[in-house]
Write a structure and sequence with these properties.
This protein has about 300 residues and is an alpha+beta fold. Helix content is about 20%, strand content about 40%. The protein is built from 5 helices and 15 strands. The strands form 2 sheets. It has an 8-stranded antiparallel β-sheet, with no helix packed on it. It has a 7-stranded mixed β-sheet with strand order 3-2-1-4-5-7-6, covered by helices on one side. Helix 2 packs across helix 3. The longest helix has 14 residues.
Length: about 300
């Protein structure tokens, strides 16, 4: 790591003095074959990424390809988050450890010399990326297969191909992009709920969900009624939609809010009937009776080290 670049990072950290004597951290070594060359993210972009991901002291941030550790250090220093950075270059790992000590966050962040494709990311609540187009596409199935629904993923400059972001911000001043995703729950399949409505009594609904990443389309059936769904949205483990139901030759609108359980096969929530004169909220539980694979084919399957 160049000395002037290291000093630039240190200058942004509390407790650094320009005259502070530090050992040279870069050591001569055989060249590494890296998929992504080290290119540090500037501090304004790091702050933007962490704000978009809504990082707090409750989070565990994993940076894949962590370079000199600045994202994990900023997350710990500014937001109190714990975390780990995975980096293949041992000199950068050594730099990260030293810089975390200067920032006084060594108790909350770790840095490990490891190929990101072999890393354990299951503990993450937030994952940060600055990897490039090809590597992002290679890591995408790992994110979908290993992260819990609702985990936040934020990437500097590079998207995840067909997996469209939930939020995309362009910072014109820097010519850079920040992309954000919630890892979606796997909800494809057939779901059934039996609920008491204020206008139609007790009724059974069967909902068939088809899934492409977080995008859903659906069919719904109800005994003795014409029904349809619109405004279906999956955000991590949260599912919302509006059901239009014909009752006594009049359409009733019910807005559903549900949370997918960790077992993936139940959804608990409530629906709000929004027809004039019948506004109320009713709890419900949906149970999955048939599981289907989310799409696109193969996108959710990851073989460690691939």
């Amino acid at each position: 790591m160049a000395l002037n670049r290291r000093r630039a990072l240190l200058a942004a950290l509390p407790g650094f003095a320009g005259s502070l004597a530090l050992p040279m951290l870069g050591h001569a070594q055989a060249p590494l074959k890296l998929d992504v060359p080290f290119a540090p993210t500037n501090f304004t972009l790091i702050d933007t990424m962490l704000r978009i991901a809504n990082v707090t002291a409750k989070d565990y941030v994993i940076d894949l390809g962590s370079g000199d550790g600045r994202i994990n250090i900023a997350a710990a220093r500014d937001w109190g988050a714990a975390g780990i950075g995975y980096e293949l270059d041992p000199a950068l790992v050594a730099d990260s450890i030293a810089l975390a000590k200067v920032a006084r966050v060594s108790d909350r962040v770790q840095f490990t010399e490891q190929n990101l494709f072999d890393s354990d990311i299951s503990k993450a609540t937030v994952v940060t990326l600055y990897l490039g187009v090809k590597v992002n596409l290679r890591v995408r199935p790992k994110l979908l297969a290993e992260l819990r629904p609702g985990t936040r993923v934020v990437s500097h400059d590079f998207d995840l191909g067909e997996w469209k972001p939930d939020l995309h911000i362009r910072l014109r001043e820097y010519g850079s992009n920040v992309f954000f995703w919630w890892v979606p729950a796997r909800v494809a399949g057939t779901w059934v709920t039996r609920a008491e409505t204020p206008d139609a009594g007790v009724r059974t609904y069967e909902v068939v969900l088809r899934q492409q990443f977080q995008a859903l389309d659906a069919e719904v059936r109800a005994e003795g009624a014409r029904v349809g769904l619109r405004d279906i949205r999956l955000a991590g483990d949260g599912l919302t939609f509006i059901m239009m139901e014909e009752v006594k030759k009049q359409f009733t609108f019910r807005r559903f809010f549900g949370r997918i359980a960790r077992d993936g096969n139940t959804i608990d929530g409530y629906f709000r009937t929004e027809t004039e004169g019948m506004r109320n909220e009713t709890p419900f539980r949906m149970t999955r009776t048939a599981v289907a694979d989310p799409g696109p084919p193969g996108a959710w399957t990851y073989v460690r080290g691939s």
